[in-house]
Amino acid sequence: MPMLKEQLSLFDEAIELTVAEPLEAHDLEEIGTVIALDRGIAMVRGLSAVKNQELVQFPGGVMGMVYNLDPHYVGIILLGGFEHIKAGDCVKRTFMVADIPVSDSFLGRVINPLGNPLDEKGPVDAQRRLPIEREAPPIMHRAPIHDPLQTGIKAIDSVVPIGKGQRELILGDRQTGKTTIAIDTIINQRDKNVICIYCSIGQQISSVTKIIEILKRYNALKHTIIMVAGAEDPPGLAYIAPYAATSLGEFFMESGRDVLIVYDDLTKHARSYRELSLLLERPPGREAYPGDIFYIHSRLLERSTHLKEKYGGGSLTALPIIETQAENLSAYIPTNLISITDGQIYLSPKIFQMGNFPAVNIGTSVSRVGGKTQLPAYRQITGMLKLSYSQFEELEIFSGFSAKLDEDTLKTLEKGKRIRKALNQPKYSPIDVTEQIGIFLAVLNGVLDSVDLDKIEESEQIIGKIVWENEAFRTLLMNRGTLDNDTKNGFLQMVEDRLKKELGF
């Protein structure tokens, strides 16, 4: 008994010494143990004080993001290759959240969602780091959207214009030209002081490589950052990619610059999140998506805005892309995103199959904000354009039931065919907004009624030259002036004379 008391006394002294001389903070480490691993997620026991969305480190330097805090274990999303990780491995806390380096040096580079270069051009000098998950700017920090962001695509700039700071959804079935519209918009930002970020989510590397080559060919890579989370990467990288790209865009926006960001596409992003949620044993909802699928996209897109001058004055414009199936706009993910965004550009497979590119369905597409940013001269003619084209589409359907048509109907049909032809445009060939106004002025006022359909494209090129030669006309349009009758009639007469001379009609 005395021996036991003596041992307990020695033990108490040891405790007192430990309390009296605590270890330094940097000597403390909280370590957990991997108890299960499955296709991009890990279950870890032992990290009792870890926080949600904290980064943890696995053997080999692979990082993971804490996502489930259960009583007996922690669910972690892996952000790197996990082939060498196994049950029993140690996991260390980093006491940091997932972030990305930000810098002007990223322009023209290809990176992954963690900010690591993928283009073999060496490391990037980072000015600072920003967390990938950030609060959206409060309402009082936001300014009205008043500047247009020109896509260079006639069918969009005329009918569904986009403003700087807007969120415009691009949706349509597979292979209808959704990515092409986004790439055209990026190409059109050359020399316009707009920084572009193309965020590729879950695409094949061959597709991304092709896009990089197109941007190089059209001299658009120097103002663009390409972020890639490939189809072969862990689903965790695909999940964080759009948030990381947005943080990179916010760095430029907060310094007073205009940014365009393309998410290609959020269908794959939603599927990645569904896969991770099911592996983490979160309760599934409609179509097996977790209950917060709406929230993950709303908190992403709410970060796109136009800031007031005292908060930087920059803007972040978002073009999220979503894929529909069998033209079903009422599917779960498309309806979620339509309700979040400020309008949508719908690409119809039927229009695509008719050979009309881009295959924009004017009746279904809408811009809830961009019309206010449109040049006044353009706004003067878009109302007539929509009306004439919708009348033509109705008459075209009914004309198939009748062999005899009156003269007025035939004229409407012929003008409608020329409007449709004018709305067509080859890919990767954006057109200046002043040229677009000149083309539609000529079409709507009957100047091209006598021109054969196969010569409409040639006529457009001639009209474009006239616009660029007429400096006073261009200056009036760019300074947000309106077209009076004398200016409009003078321009139309000039176009008619030149077309007669060069095309001989």
Fold blueprint:
Blueprint: H1 2-20, E1 31-38, E2 41-45, E3 54-57, E4 63-69, E5 74-78, E6 90-97, E7 99-102, E8 110-111, E9 128-131, H2 154-159, E10 169-172, H3 178-187, E11 194-201, H4 205-217, E12 224-229, H5 235-254, E13 258-264, H6 266-279, H7 293-301, E14 315-323, H8 332-340, E15 343-347, H9 349-353, E16 366-367, H10 376-399, H11 407-423, H12 433-444, H13 456-469, H14 471-478, H15 485-503
The major β-sheet equals:
8 strands, mixed
Backbone structural class: alpha/beta
Helical content class: 25-40%
CATH superfamily of the largest domain: P-loop containing nucleotide triphosphate hydrolases
Shape: elongated
Strand content: 15-25%
Mean pLDDT: 91
Count of domain modules: 3
- N- to C-terminal separation? 121 Å
Descriptive notes:
- Helix 13 crosses helix 15 (485-503).
- The protein starts with a helix and ends with a helix.
- It is built from 15 helices and 16 strands.
- Helix content is 39%, strand content 17%.
- It is of the alpha/beta class and 505 residues long.
Q: Could you name the key traits of this structure?
A:
8-stranded mixed beta sheet, Elongation Factor Tu (Ef-tu), domain 3, 6-stranded antiparallel β-barrel, Rossmann fold, CF(1), Lysin
Summarize the structure.
By secondary structure, the protein is α/β, with parallel strands linked by helices.
